[in-house]
Every structure is written in structure tokens, then in C-alpha cells.
Amino acid sequence: MTATSATASTKKDGNVHLGEYLFSRIKQLGIDNILGVPGDFNLHLLDYIYRVPDLNWVGCCNELNAAYAADGYGRVKHLPGVLVTTYGVGELSALNGVSGAFAEQAPLLHIVGTTGRPIQEESWLVHHVLPKENSLQEPDHLVYQGMSEKVRCCSAFLNDKETAAAEIDRVLTTICQKSLPGYLFIPVDMTWQPLDAARLDSKLDYSVKNEDPKLENEIVDSILSEIYASKNATVFADVLTARHRATDLVRELAKKTNFPNYTSPLGKGILNENEDRFVGVYNGQLSLEGVAKSIEASDCVLFTGPLLSDSNTGGFSHNLKDENTIYLSPDYVKVKGKLYEGVHFFPVLKKVVEQLDVEKISAESKTAAMPTISPPPVIDSPLPISQTFLVDSMSKMMRPDDLLIVETGTFQFACSDVKFNTNNSLLTQIFYSCIGFTLPATLGAALAKREDAAAKNDKGRVILVEGDGSAQMTIQELGTMVRQGLNPIIFLLNNDGYSIERAIHGPEQSYNDICPKWKWTKLLEAFGGTEGVDSFSTTVKTREELEALIGDEKFMNSDKAQLVEVIMDVNDYPWRLNEQIKLMGGKNMKVFAEYQKKNP
Amino acid sequence: MTATSATASTKKDGNVHLGEYLFSRIKQLGIDNILGVPGDFNLHLLDYIYRVPDLNWVGCCNELNAAYAADGYGRVKHLPGVLVTTYGVGELSALNGVSGAFAEQAPLLHIVGTTGRPIQEESWLVHHVLPKENSLQEPDHLVYQGMSEKVRCCSAFLNDKETAAAEIDRVLTTICQKSLPGYLFIPVDMTWQPLDAARLDSKLDYSVKNEDPKLENEIVDSILSEIYASKNATVFADVLTARHRATDLVRELAKKTNFPNYTSPLGKGILNENEDRFVGVYNGQLSLEGVAKSIEASDCVLFTGPLLSDSNTGGFSHNLKDENTIYLSPDYVKVKGKLYEGVHFFPVLKKVVEQLDVEKISAESKTAAMPTISPPPVIDSPLPISQTFLVDSMSKMMRPDDLLIVETGTFQFACSDVKFNTNNSLLTQIFYSCIGFTLPATLGAALAKREDAAAKNDKGRVILVEGDGSAQMTIQELGTMVRQGLNPIIFLLNNDGYSIERAIHGPEQSYNDICPKWKWTKLLEAFGGTEGVDSFSTTVKTREELEALIGDEKFMNSDKAQLVEVIMDVNDYPWRLNEQIKLMGGKNMKVFAEYQKKNP
Ligand SMILES: Cc1ncc(C[n+]2csc(CCOP(=O)(O)OP(=O)(O)O)c2C)c(N)n1
Ligand SMILES: Cc1ncc(C[n+]2csc(CCOP(=O)(O)OP(=O)(O)O)c2C)c(N)n1
């Protein structure tokens, strides 16, 4: 229906086709890869990707995987992962991935190609349309749009060419500012509508500003006074710090102040672990010994980017008193009990770091003795490679700039104990905790990392640790990694099923078994890799085998996609998982019993 | 938290635990297999499956696949496919599968294990819970329940033990009556609540009754008179006939009356194609020559179970006049223009068949000459195995009682031309048209067929024809087929990508390529099969190879899971697809142009 060639721009008479406008805007932001799956309601739209120089289409095997990949991309790039799906069938398939991005605040743009405007208005019962329960009633073509309402921060239904450009800009800007998913719904006959090309000359500004600069300055001042007054200040970085692009800021804060500093499980890596003043991962009662005691004794915890979910707070066992804590959140700032709702922490933190006068910090705070932190308890396993051994091995794996991705499962509760190298980061979903997420997220993360590797002189690798049960969910995306020439290292923990669930309930129940006898080391090849050329797979059973691998520069510096099957025991659980289950299980039992008493 | 052993019943003092009540009810209906994926909010519930004798848990690789499998099960069994998922992450992953079941009216029960009642009331931010955009607001644990509202016909949130048993019964009965999806949301602390065991002594009655028996009789009479008055009556069975368990009825109607009879593309197989009076598949202008002319000349079309979507009506090109047609739908009956809303066709059709006096049918109707139907146009392909050749091969494949499953894609538009054998049926999703559906649906269908094979003396096989692009979506469920010892035959059409999309738009665009170089014949093994023992894979490129396979009794009667990779040309499209695109493309262009004129 569009007559122009696939690569020629549609710019003409000061106008540009909607599709080209949209993808030009996306490219302007610094995004080079678009993820998704084609379908007849988005094919015309996809044509415009080829008209924007250096913008690439990355087709995925299915839409849920593509959504996970877009989320992974967004977490690494700090710009929206862009996902294109088709009306209904593709859109709904992706929903759980978008929901995870919403829960953990990853920026994501979901573009849905929909039925054409006249066909919607006339309610044609074309394929993918959801009929009413009573077939005498006309179908509502907009019904799917309602289903994603709670997992997006903004959306636009582009059915009017007069407003479409502004709506695209609004949605992109909002997603970047809020670091949350947003939607664009584009009827097929809108893709070639002419929009004002001149708008493209000014770039989008998505910097975050607080409404009331006077109030903001007040808050900055009060935070600075608290810092100066403190005898024992600390910095504690949680995950939303990174999501809201404040990693560098908080690193600077830690460096400038010399305060002992901590991260949360989800925030691990935001502060450099091999700097002198890094203490450890604070996870309430489920921290390494010494960590909780020291941060809880602080009279001024600068707590950035909090996400206060069960597994990110040691089962709600944080013990930071309001009178000792300064919360710096995207939704509020709270200075020792005084709440400022609707104030975004970023501009505040920026000013704090800029205005901080190091001279005014108390000597006690600056030079506070570093607490002694005990090593993690060793848990034995009947098999040579235990969770404990794996933690040590991963500590040896990590090189500067590496990104470690850890799937929901047993090792997610062990990975807090991995010792990070310079500028390492962690990508894990310990709050939304959706399994199957990380394998496609690794694809997206690796794409994002590659886009900027040259510019940033980033030689870091992407390393995934994932259980067998989770891997079965989304395994086909291995093929897309190979197709894209990516070189992630995947440690596939073969422990015969859903071990974390066994730890929680029903260790012997067959529902915790998974599809057996998968030939894990054959999969990269089956999905298109050529062993030794663009892929490499191996199995490790002994400690020596794993050590040899990590000692092998060929493995450590490979340009191939690599999969290492690690044989582990079915009931090998990390210490923190055992403790988490004990703690949360206890809390659950208590409230269940109380509830039962009240509702006999 | 539950103390009893995994297999002992929980019946005691006239009570039974909710979990056991639920699964006992399900088993009573005649359902032997439960599909899904475990998660910590449903583990306790799953324990009760083992307490119901001969009820099996079938774990799937992921929830979307499990939903597709449950849909496939429901379409074959005509009882709800039962799907169990966990709160949020699992529940949303399955949504698109449930939506497809809703669109095409497959009975499906989606059981979601949710957070416990007190934890909901206190709004704990535990894993899987969706936070509010503003983290100062408390999360709403019920938010996911709203997302599936439009794709279910009923639901119950079981948070009260006094009403839970009645609610379970209501939801199960409604699903069976409406042949649509329904939901049960079960907080984890409800699973062990005591319900009245005595209710289980009386079975659920899900027979459909019309409210007004007098009106029903009037309708029956008027239909009988129309039949008797007709000179040229026909029977036309569409897919909802089968969904509402009226296949036997409409077969009896066809047999008793001796009227020439037809099916729709989706309804193919409902009427036996090797009976004398079967004419063909009516698909408006996109029927084989002779079909449309003859049915459109009928003065009394008994049209059962209509689903009037684009690809099931030859792009809305049905030409049945109201004054010649009797519509028999679950939502209405319409006798030659006279509409009876809210009347269900089943009891009406039953009475018509029972009361029909063959003597009163006109001789013309009973002995109407059978029209001459032209064979399908032959479309050439540069490769030996063309769509046309495949149609002929599948016609030779089919043996009595076989179930043919066809994925959305090129062959879906060819399969109307496959010549069916006795009691063959077709499972395809030509309306919701979601790719990836059929591979897991094959798993569910094969389970359902196996459950009743002995009782029904059903020796039929399950045969899937699927394109490579669709197969990539859900490929891992091959492993579950092997795990369950099933023996489907899978024809995997390797034509280098999304050919049906190429036919629609962008034949050369790279977005229509898929992940390349998959080793299709290695997959059954990679996913746990042992070649020659429980699986068999092969590639066919020539006509002779495919013919030899179909001539090989070992292949035709195998107890292994079998995968045949069929090499086909990337631009080989069946004739009906070309026509469909021409017709619908033309309609689209016309309305887009008109719309553009009205909205310049
Ligand atoms: C989509 C989804 N389905 C189900 C679950 C429930 N669940 C959480 S962890 C887990 C098991 C993970 O097993 P595996 O990946 O093998 O890791 P392991 O615990 O064995 O290390 C399951 C089923 C979930 N979190 N997300
Ligand atoms: C979940 C979903 N995503 C995308 C689509 C759009 N779509 C319809 S058919 C098709 C291609 C199918 O290709 P393949 O299975 O290889 O079959 P072929 O047409 O080549 O025979 C696609 C991508 C869809 N219908 N459903």
C-alpha cells in the first residue's frame, strides 16, 4: 500500500510519514535496535525502520521473549527498549513482559500495530479481533488497549494525524522520565499519514525537573545539613538509582564523602564493590554478618532509589529508623521523617552532590572504621559444584565492566555474595520474579551493551546464570543471540528441576520436576549455531572442570555465544534462600493463623 | 503447611479441603489431565491433584504454552481444558492463550493461585505483586484479575469458605454450558479450608436449557415447517456446532434428511466428508467452483454454529440470503429472517432432529442432484513439494478418526482442500489466528484424545502441520510430548520464514525472515527424545520421499513422536490465500480511501 522503496525517506513538502517520524525519534534518542515480531497489522509500520539509517530490526521468536528482551535492553541502556507487536495476539503475548518492566521500572516502549480506523469504526470481525460473548453484539476493537492500562505509565492511540507527532513525543518523553513502560497504538492506515517533519529538528528533552525549585533547594539544604551534622553517615543505593540514571551521581556521592557504602540485592553493582569504602549488600536480617549492624547504626543513611519488596529487604527485615534515614526516591524525598511527596530525587541528588562541601563533613563520618564482614556460611552439597563454589567461581569470572544477569531461582539468593569487579552490574528480577525472563533479557542487554561498547570503551561481557526450569520457558531465543552475532556466556544450572520451589514446598512432588533429559549442550547448535565457529557448549561436573574453564582465556574472551551446563544437586539451596524462606514462611504462618482466628 | 500425605484424601467429618473439592469436581466431569506451571502461590493447591485418583499433573515449559495446550484439550474433549498458573507472572503469561480460547469458544478453566488473604488485605509488596506507579500508594493485589475480565465468561475469587463450593460449581457449570474460558482465583490460604463434602455426591448438570419451552417448541415447529416446505434444503455446519457438542446431532440431521451438506473452513470435519451427500467447504467466493453456487441456490440452509469472521467466510463474501437461511447459534436462532435472541440452538436442534418426520420432506430436497465441484487450481512451485502436492499428500495421510491440526500460516488456506476420511476433524485457529498456538495445542489435543481412546475405540492419530515461523514460538513443548509418551506426527513446513506475511506485504523484507539454520530434525532429541526409541525425525525434499513416508506403515502407525521437516519454497502460496488477500486487500483499500476522503 505504500509505494516508496524500502530505504528511501518519506520526507516531502515538509512532511514525513508517521512511521518514519516515529522511528526517527527513536533513533534520535540513541536507540539502534528495535525488537519484536511482525504481523499483518504492523508490516507497513516496520517498513519505516529501514528508512532510518543505522536503525535495525531484531526479530524475536515470540512476543513474550521480545518483551523480555526489550526490558533487558532498557535496563542496560537507560532508554526505552522498543518492542513492536501486532494487534491482540502479539500485544497480549507480550503483556507479562511489560508488567515486569512496570514492576521493576524499566523503560519500555510497546508499539502495537492495530486494525485500520474505518475497520474499527465499522467493527469488522477480522482475525485477531475479540468478539463479544454474545455474537449479536459488535466487537470492540479497542478492548485490548484496556488490558495493559495498569502496566503502563502513558499511552497514545494514534488515530489523528494532527496530534500524532505531539503524542509520539509525549509518550517517548514520559517513558524516559518515569523509566516505565508506555504504549503507542497505531492503526495500520495511520502509518503513512503525513506529519510535520520540522518537529524532528529539535530533540526531545526528557530531563526530570521538579515543579517547585524553591522547595527543591530547601530539601537540598536540609539534606546537606544532615550530612554535615552526622557522625556516622552512610550511602545505601537501591535499584531505582540505576533506573533513574543516577548511578554516576551516587558513585560520586560515595567517592566525595568517603562514607561507608552499601547496595541492596537488586542494587548490587551500583556502587563499585572493589572500592575501599564499600561494605556490602544490605538485605535486612539476611545480610552477611556485620553488614546490618553497621548500616543500622548509621545516624544518616542516604538511601537512594528504594524498592521495598520482600526479597529486596530480607523479607521486610530492614531496620533503618526514619530519624536516621534520608530516602531519595523518584516519587518522594523523605528527610529523617519529613516527607516531600511528588519530589523526584534526581535533581535533588544532583544538587546535593554539586553543592556538597567536603570540608563540612565530620571527620568521624569521613573516616568511620569499616566494619568487619563475615564471609557467607558454607553450605555443603553432595555434588562437587555447590552454590557456595559457584559463588566463588563467579567472583573469579567477573572482569571490569561485566554485566552479570541472574535468573529468578536458587542462585538469585546466592549472587549477593559474588564479589564484583570494577563497574560490574547486576541485572536480576528479584521483585517481579518472573522466570524465563533473563534469557531473552540477555539478548536485549547484549544488544544494548554492544551499541555503546566502542564509544564507552566497554570491554565488559554479558554473563547469564540461569536454572534449567527457567531456561525451558524461553530457550528458543538462544537462536536470536547466535543470529545477532552476540557472545554472552550462559551458565545453565542443571539441578533437575525447580529447586527453589522444592525449597519452598513439595521437594519430592513431581510438579517440581521439569521436562527431563534435555541435551543442553546441543541447543546452541540446534538453534542455528555452528559449534566452534559462532557457538561453544560444554558441561562441567567437577570443580576442576569449572576452574579450568575460568582459567582458559579462549573461553573468557570468546566472541562466540557460549553455554556451560553446570551439574548441581537438586536440593542444594544457598544459605540466604533458606533464611528467606524461614523468615517469610514464619511471617505468613503468623498472619494466616491470625486471619483464621478472626474469620473462623 | 498442609500436614496430610500427598495421596491421602482430606475428607473428614463431612468436610473436604477446598483443593480436593475442586480437583474432585474436575475429575468427575471426566477430565484426567491438568496443565500448567507451578509457582509458590499454587504449590499447596497442586498437592491436592495427587489426592484425586487417576488425575494427572502435566507440567508445561511455560504458561502460554500451557494455555494453548488447555485450549487444544478443550476443543477435542468438549470439556474445559484445565490450566493452573501462579499469581501475576504466570497468570498474565497465559492471557493470550485464554483470549484465543474465548475468541473461538473453547472451554477452559484457568485456576490462578494468588497471594494469601491477609497479605492481600495488608497490601504487602511481596514478589509478583504489581506496585502502583507512585510507590507511596499501596499495591492492589487484585489488579491482575481485572486484566482477564474481557476474555472470560465467568469467574470467582474464592476468599470465603462458606461460598467457595457453590462458586466452584457455578464456574465449572458455566464454562461447560458456554464453552468459553472461566477463572478461579484461589488465595494460597484458602486451599486447605474445609468445604462440605456431601455436595460432591451429586454431579454437576451442565446441560443447556432454554428459558421458555413454549417459545422453543414454536421455533422447532417453524423450522420443521420450513424444512418440509423446502425444495432444495441443505445443511451447513460451522465450528460452533462442534464446540457446543452438536456434532453428532448435525451428522444425524444430515443423514436423516439426506440433504446435500457443507462445512465452513473452521467447521471442516464436522460433517463426514466421505459420505455421499457431502458437497464441500463453503467459504463464500473463495470456495471450490460449484460449492458456492449450489449452497447459495438453496431455499433452506440449515446453518449451525456460525462464526462469521473474515477468513471463515471468504473475506465476508458469504451470499446466503436471510429468507433462505436458518441460523442456529448459541446466542440466537434466526428462522428465515425472524430473530429469536437469547435462544440456544442446541435444545432446538435436538428437538428438530428427534421430531423430524422424514416422510414430510420433499422428494426434491431429499434427492437433489449433487453439484459438480471442480478440483482446486494447481499452483506451481519451483520446489518439488508444493502446497498443492502437500494437500494431496495429507489427503492420503488421513485415516478414520484422525485429528488434523493446522497452524495459522500458508497451509491453513490450503487445508480446506484436503480430502477427509471418516470421522476426521480439524483443529485450527483461522479466526483468532495466533501463531505458536498449535504445537502446544497438539500436546493438549493428544492428551484429550488418549484419555478416551480406549472407551471410544478411537485409533485416530494427531497430525500437526505447522510453518517454521510459528514453530519457533513454542517449540520447547516438543519435550512435553515426549515426556508424556505421546505420538503426534508433526509436518514442519520449512519455507524460510513467515511466508504468509510475505504474501500479504514485504516479500523481500528481512522482518519476514526468521531465526535461520535451525536443525529441525535434531529438536525432538535435544528436548529429551531418543531417536528410534520414543522419537523419529526426518527431512523430505522430494515428492518421492514424502510418498514413501506415507506408504510406510511403520511411520503411519508409530507410537513415537515424529517430526517431518518438509522443504518448501519461500513464495509458495496456496490459491485460496492469494484470493483471500486480493479480496480483503481490495476491501481494505476501498474503506481506507473513503475514510481518507472523509477525514482529509
Ligand atoms: C512465569 C513464572 N512461572 C512460574 C514461576 C514460579 N517459579 C519461581 S522460581 C521457579 C523455579 C525456577 O527453577 P530453575 O530455573 O530450575 O532454578 P533453580 O531454582 O532450580 O535454581 C518457579 C517455577 C515464576 N516465578 N514465574
Ligand atoms: C502471536 C502472533 N504473532 C504474530 C502473528 C502474525 N503472523 C501471522 S502468520 C505469521 C507467519 C507464520 O509463518 P510460518 O509459521 O512460517 O508459516 P508459513 O506462512 O510460512 O506457512 C505471522 C508472523 C500472529 N498471527 N500471531
From TrEMBL, chains A, B:
UniProt cofactor note: Binds 1 Mg(2+) per subunit.
Thiamine pyrophosphate enzyme N-terminal TPP-binding domain: residues covered: 18-127
Single biological process term from Gene Ontology: aromatic amino acid family catabolic process to alcohol via Ehrlich pathway
Xref: Pfam families: TPP_enzyme_C, TPP_enzyme_M, TPP_enzyme_N
GO molecular function ontology, one term from the record: magnesium ion binding
Residues annotated for Mg(2+) binding in this entry: 468, 495, 497
Cofactor requirements of the protein: Mg(2+); thiamine diphosphate
Domain of life: Eukaryota
Keywords: Decarboxylase, Lyase, Magnesium, Metal-binding, Thiamine pyrophosphate
Domain Thiamine pyrophosphate enzyme central residue range list: 221-355
PANTHER family (UniProt xref): PYRUVATE DECARBOXYLASE, TRANSAMINATED AMINO ACID DECARBOXYLASE
Family affiliation: Belongs to the TPP enzyme family.
Name of the molecule in the record: YALI0D06930p
